[in-house]
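Entry for the shared binder. Reason: the reviewer on the internal report wants the predicted structure included alongside the sequence.
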Amino acid sequence: MPPSVLRRAESRAAVLLLSGGLDSTTMLAQATSERYDVHALTFRYGQRHEHEVEAARLIAARYRVARHAVMDIDLRAFGGSSLTGSSPIPKNRPESAIAAEIPSTYVPARNTIFLSFALGWAEVLGARDIFIGVNAVDYSGYPDCRPEYLAAFEQLATLATRSGVEGEGAIRIRAPLLHLSKREIIELGTSLGVDYSATTTCYDPDKAGAACGRCDACTLRLRGFAEGGLVDPARYVPSGGAAR
């Protein structure tokens, strides 16, 4: 089949970054509802636990993605984050403080690394869309979750790829949750039938995968469910905050 025909045939292909968390699962449900041929990409990057990787495997299978790739890249070699090291995870922080500074859970250049892998796969597939579940409303102060960052990476994708240079079509960085609150994301997912009990958000779960209920990620997640009048179906440790 000529390359041009192949690209047209794969025009609904998309690469989607799937962490196994609430946001990326909601985004997967939306992309699936829009009939994208989803190729999900998950990273084992040296994070403190692998519960999210296993959750991503389960979710990818549930949504019958075209392919689910789990990539190994060990960011522990660089350090610089409590998610890839042994320093304490911030907990019990007031919500006013969560977005006030870049926290220790920020992994240097993580989204840039992830999007670069996704960009390479998108080129091979002839995909024109890369989905990332970042959020600029209820986010934990991460610089690579901002609209300006996504716009800059999309420009890079045009400059740095054969498809962009040869005019075959720009690759778009899709962030459908970017301007939604956590409550709105949960309401969207609920309307799409997302089973949030299968997702994991916690930065510091116990060995069985139960969420701590006290880290920044848990705080934002629990608030979103509470504001929507819903009960979070995820498992929490007995001292956690599932009943908030």
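Summary line for the report: The longest helix spans residues 110-125.
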